[in-house]
Amino acid sequence: MLVVLCMDTSYSMRGEAIGRLNDALAGWARSMQAGEKMATTTEFALITFGAGGVRKWRGSESFDPRSDRTPFVPAHSFRPPKLTADGVTPLVEAVRLSISVIEARKRQLAQDKVTWKRPLVWLVTDGRPTDDQGHPALDWRPLTSEIRALEVAQKLALFAIGIPPIDDQGQETLRELAPERNMMYGRFDFSDILVQLDRSVEDPNYKLRGYQPRQA
After folding, report:
1. What is the rounded CA–CA span in Å between residue 206 and residue 204?
2. Which of the chain's ends, N or C, has fewer CB atoms near its CB within 10 Å?
3. Is 160 helix (H, G, I), strand (E, B) or coil?
4. Is the separation of the CB atoms in 40 and 80 below 8 Å?
5. pTM for this prediction
6. 3-state class percentages of the chain: helix first, strand second, coil last, to nearest 5
7. Which residues does 163 contact at the CB level (< 8 Å), separation at least 6?
8. Is the pLDDT of residue 37 over 60?
């Protein structure tokens, strides 16, 4: 299975939020390195949006999103970088890049005659999409129909997670992008978000409807 972690690293994530995200990713990576089943059946890619713009990552190295180099690595080889927070929130560009790297990796796997389950994109953000000047952007609306078409064709499943201090408009954006797979957290509980991600890998039909995270 192919899984993209599409993570917000914009300015508003500075301080406690980015620290908790780094800690959660590091602990999660250690659990996969311990030899659990997912370590041999899943490939992960990390894409961030905010600090440095939109970036692909392999370990501690980030590289140009236009590069043909794949960010996917086997789960047991996933080594998260120490992320920093700065800049605006180019969420739409990051989601489109997530879709692009999945399609490119699927083509590579097809050449090797390797089959795959429906890929997943886990989007985590604390704000609404912006343009490169930091102004609210509306280019996410056409993206919703593109995602629906991919999901109907079983080519993708998008999970959209909101964390503090996401506002009402930001929450509505995530609900539009992922009607059955969105969740809003009242605190920086990245460890629980990663638990839900693990469940989605184990169950291809997993949805977040009915799951209530702790809010305090």
Report:
1. 6
2. C
3. strand
4. no
5. 0.93
6. 40, 20, 40
7. 17, 124, 125, 126, 184, 185, 187, 188, 190
8. no
